[in-house]
Write a structure and sequence with these properties.
With about 475 residues, this protein is of the alpha/beta class. It is built from 14 helices and 24 strands.
Amino acid sequence: MRHGWVREPARILVVGGGYVGMYTALRLQKKLKQELRSGAVEIVVVTPDPYMTYQPFLPEAAAGSISPRHVVVSLRSVLEHCHVIVGEVVSVDHAKRTAAYTTLASKDEGTGPAALTYDELVLAPGSVSRTLPVPGLAEFGIGFKTVEEAVGLRNHVIEQLDIASSTRDPAVRDAALTFVFVGGGYAGVEALGELEDMARYAVKYYHNVKPEDLKWILVEASDRILPEVGPEMGLYTIRELRGRNVDVRLGTRLESCENRTAVLSDGSRFPTRTVVWTAGVKPSPLLAATDLPLTDRGRLRCTAALAVDGAAHAWGAGDAAAVPDLTAEEEGTQCAPNAQHAVRQARTLADNIAASLRGQALTDYEHAYVGSVASLGLHKGVAHVYGRKLKGYPAWFMHRVYHLSRVPTVNRKARVLTEWTLSALFKREIVSLGSLERPRAEFELAAGPVPPEDPSAPPAGGPKGSP
């Protein structure tokens, strides 16, 4: 513990408010209730966003099946015994037990990053989109990792239908109705499946756009999609998507998307206004700004007890950590960076921190992967759970039941279930609220600079003496 003239509480610093960050802090609140009450321990959470995003629901948020605000959980409301700082840790000096961070006020203050000392460090900044130097990607690509991106993509797709319906230029229409998704993992397949389903429903309300006018293209560099559900279910998914007129291209890469044209490695060229990039993730760049040991892939080198290997009082889990998989048959296998492991690792991590503070033995994390479920749109899905393979409606139903059981807080469960019920009883909402992304645009136009007056022009009220 830190010492001075007055004994200070042991500070547990949690970096990141995602799955690991939120669930670890939530568990610590429960395990260290007595220490928190007495002031012997304090928990500080530093996170760029004041909420945790339940990412498995992003495709449904993009399709309008769930309200975006129900995909996120307010950290302040669930971490009531923690000090939540909305900011970003920019570096960590673990040798000195110090983290440098910025907040939303840092720029106005002009003081630069502030320093925060700690006794125990939980480093869980998660991951960021893994991009490649594809020409035009930075200018025209759309990500799919945050709730803001999901809402933006929904608005964008509906906006393309509006453009196609109103233009007289066949080239503009063709580009507006062509949607290219890069990456055949969960994010890409589920996002495409949900949005294709939504768009096909939406064109019922356009007098000059038909479902067969829409062109959906899924580009995957490997020879299969959704590897987590196994080869058989992966092949079923390909057949299902192709049956819905989705052009699935395996062993293919995006070479360029400059000038609103997607150029693929097989030589194909598609004029398009929509390129969605879901080709994997990589560990947060913050890890490189620490003095902690990393693997050759840039993840924290951790033990099975979720402690950073060779760094006392430092802990890691989730996407940012390389954790040994004790259930794997092959030695040296690491836990997959997914939500299933992250949530369970957070529980073990919090228990081990509490045990460490109390001088008790640590517990190794051990969890056998139970399988995966994926939604392909309304009433469509695939699943491979406990060795059982499901497809169609049963898999879709299992997808919803599983994720409803995992989304945090009873409040969120009730709201999501209510929205699903209402969606089953009433028609879909197909309104684009693209103006939300620039809410001040209209006011800026109205309040813009007034053009200089023409001295020869009459006054605004008309010529002098006029009524």
